[in-house]
Design a protein that fits this description.
The chain is mainly alpha-helical and 322 residues long. The chain folds into two domains: 1-174, no CATH class; 179-322, no CATH class. 73% of the residues lie in helices and 0% in strands. It is built from 14 helices and no strands. The chain has helices at residues 2-28, 32-37, 41-58, 63-67, 71-77, 83-89, 97-115, 125-139, 153-170, 184-208, 220-254, 256-269, 280-300, 303-321. The longest helix is centred in the last third of the chain and has 35 residues, at 220-254.
Length: 322
């Protein structure tokens, strides 16, 4: 019975993934991004699809069989996370041996670091070091040479894949709640936390001058695109890192409340560079938002709940308050 349910879940995941890619291809093949990339757009889209695949299918339980592999097999398999780079760059002037070595070695070394030796359930220095390395790689733009500037969101997805694989498969982190299967309880909790945060955000945003209300009525297609892009490029990677991994691990050391606050503050600080200098207004609002994202996640230890809150906050802000 369980095997039958798993197969059905996989079939549904594949069908949704194919429909999602078809919608994105249809919506963006004539976009400014596609025009700027020219003939490189099909390869860029294929690279994006491969980067999205682990984040998507792990959310439907695809990580479980991988956890049962031998340690060295899991470490070797981490090299497959480099495939999106080669699909985009191999045989073109964009190909770089340096970038190729980095995208192969980085996930393998990170997987080995968290795989050998077997780590306890509680957060260790290795967990902290791994998270710092992943964050530093992103903020120092060490993968910038792998994809062109127009595709700056792809390194973020690559690092999200690495974090997902290393902590869920190699580290076998418990309690992450990484599931993209929607449940009514997760949606309800996510929307509840958004409702709690909204008046705080509006009041503080007005006082600080961070938000600027405009009463335009966006087209339905624009709203749908905004929701999809926020879901795929912002909410999933960030909720994975800050809630399913960081807050989850911190709870094993400093307790639920302190973990919630520390993860929220670090989440807020991760937005420091959204502007010409240190954007303290963004950091402040994002830190407070992080508290409600964290509350949504820990309510049922379900990442889909915090994803719902995150999407609601970002989409409403971008459509009416940006």
């Amino acid at each position: 019975m369980a095997t039958g349910l798993n197969k059905l879940r996989l079939i549904i995941a594949v069908a949704l993934y194919a429909a999602l890619l078809a919608a994105l291809w249809s919506g963006f093949r004539h976009s400014e991004l596609a025009l700027s990339l020219g003939g490189e757009f099909p390869r860029a889209f294929a690279s994006f699809a491969l980067l999205l695949a682990p984040l998507w299918f792990f959310g439907f339980g695809a990580s479980e069989p991988l956890k049962r592999m031998a340690s060295w097999s899991k470490i070797s398999a981490a090299a497959l996370l480099s495939l999106p780079y080669f699909v985009f760059a191999a045989g073109t002037t964009a190909y770089s041996w340096r970038a190729a070595v980095i995208v192969i070695a980085f996930p393998m070394l990170m997987a080995a670091f968290l795989e050998l030796p077997t780590l306890p359930k509680r957060m260790t220095w290795r967990d902290g070091a791994a998270l710092i390395v992943i964050a530093a790689t992103y903020y120092l733009k060490l993968l910038q040479s792998a994809w062109p500037p127009e595709l700056a969101f792809l390194p973020k997805l690559f690092l999200a894949d690495v974090a997902l694989y290393c902590f869920l498969v190699s580290r076998q982190l418990e309690g992450a709640g990484y599931s993209l299967i929607p449940t009514w309880s997760a949606v309800k909790v996510g929307l509840r936390e958004w409702v709690f945060f909204l008046p705080i955000a509006v009041a503080l945003g007005e006082v600080t001058g961070f938000i600027h209300f405009h009463s335009n009525v966006p087209r339905l297609g624009h709203v749908i695109a905004d929701i999809l892009l926020t879901f795929l490029l912002i909410a999933i990677p960030e909720e994975l890192f800050f809630r399913a991994i960081l807050q989850n691990l911190l709870e094993t050391r400093i307790g639920r409340t302190a973990a919630l606050l520390v993860a929220a503050i670090l989440f807020g600080l991760s937005h420091f560079n959204h502007g010409a200098g240190f954007n303290w207004k963004y950091v402040l609002l994002a830190s407070i938002a992080g508290i409600f994202y964290g509350r949504a996640w820990r309510a049922e230890r379900q990442i889909f709940a915090s994803i719902v809150t995150h999407i609601a906050v970002d989409v409403v802000w971008s459509l009416w308050f940006r």
